[in-house]
Specification:
By secondary structure, this protein is α/β, with parallel strands linked by helices. It is built from 10 helices and 7 strands. Strand 1, helix 2 and strand 2 form a beta-alpha-beta unit.
């Protein structure tokens, strides 16, 4: 992580600003991939709204990425907000708040909020199944529906990037609930891309492999060692590496890319 943080800081001297002047909403922004997305999007000129169920964690993200985005390509006022993506009321209230604060809806939407409740299928509780679907799948749906509708009503083009997982393709022991939710995100992404294309709103999904995040940090060391043997690059990914792809898909550099799933796995 340290290596990529140093590179991120050094890159501030190169003002490319590929999402300059745009408003970006990032869910799950309190840690991991969501936090990294805030850092890179702000580096590239976006005004970032860091949303998380843990408000203090989102606020910490803003404090961290504001320092990283203090160069001449920093635009507007970043903000931290508390958000429960599984609640339609919470999502609707957020949209109202942002339109009041920024006078327009965000046109970059990053669905990074996600949870795990791992267990063997035969031992998995119904509550643990439902909770994972509510956040990972329903939460992604609610954010997409609410903010895509706001973009269409404002006649604004946009980009939505959903975070799925490589295990959505291959399955994973102890994660029947998680893999189901992430496979659902892929199908939903492709369908939404077909529906929203006529409004010039692009929808894509990223399938990260094993990334050095708090979620992967809970995996036992022996299990991680086995995973590393299956990764040709021989290491875990860094959240910043996912964030760079997120930012590319959020920018006009990917203007003809929609309905795509992008594996970022180190070759897994």
């Amino acid at each position: 992580m340290k290596h990529y943080e140093q590179n991120l800081r050094k890159s501030l001297i190169m003002v490319s600003g590929i999402v300059s002047g745009r408003l970006a909403l990032v869910t799950g922004a309190g840690s991991g991939i969501g936090r990294a997305a805030c850092q890179v999007l702000s580096r590239e000129g976006a005004t970032v709204i860091a949303a998380d169920k843990d408000y203090e964690a989102a606020l910490e993200t803003i404090k961290k990425h504001s320092a990283l985005a203090s160069g001449s390509n920093a635009v507007g006022d970043h903000s931290a907000v508390e958000l429960d993506v599984s609640s339609s009321k919470s999502v609707a209230e957020l949209l109202t708040k942002l339109q009041r604060q920024y006078k327009a809806p965000p046109t970059i939407i990053i669905n990074s909020a996600g949870i795990t409740r791992d267990n063997w299928m035969l031992k998995l509780s119904e509550d643990d199944f439902d909770n994972v679907q509510d956040v990972n799948l329903k939460g992604t749906f609610l954010i997409m529906q609410t903010f895509a509708k706001a973009m269409t009503e404002a006649s604004l083009p946009g980009s939505i990037v959903n975070i799925s997982s490589i295990v959505a393709k291959y399955g994973n022991i102890g994660q029947t609930n998680y893999t189901a939710s992430k496979a659902g995100v892929i199908g939903m992404t492709k369908s939404a891309a077909k529906e929203l294309g006529k409004f010039n709103i692009r929808v894509n999904a990223i399938l990260p492999g094993f990334i050095d995040t708090p979620m992967v940090g809970t995996v036992p060391d022996k299990v991680k060692e086995n995973f590393l043997k299956m990764i040709p690059l021989g290491r875990l990914g860094d959240p910043i590496e996912i964030a760079e792809v997120i930012t590319f898909l959020s920018s006009d550099k990917s203007s003809f890319v929609t309905g795509a799933t992008v594996d970022v796995t180190g070759g897994f």
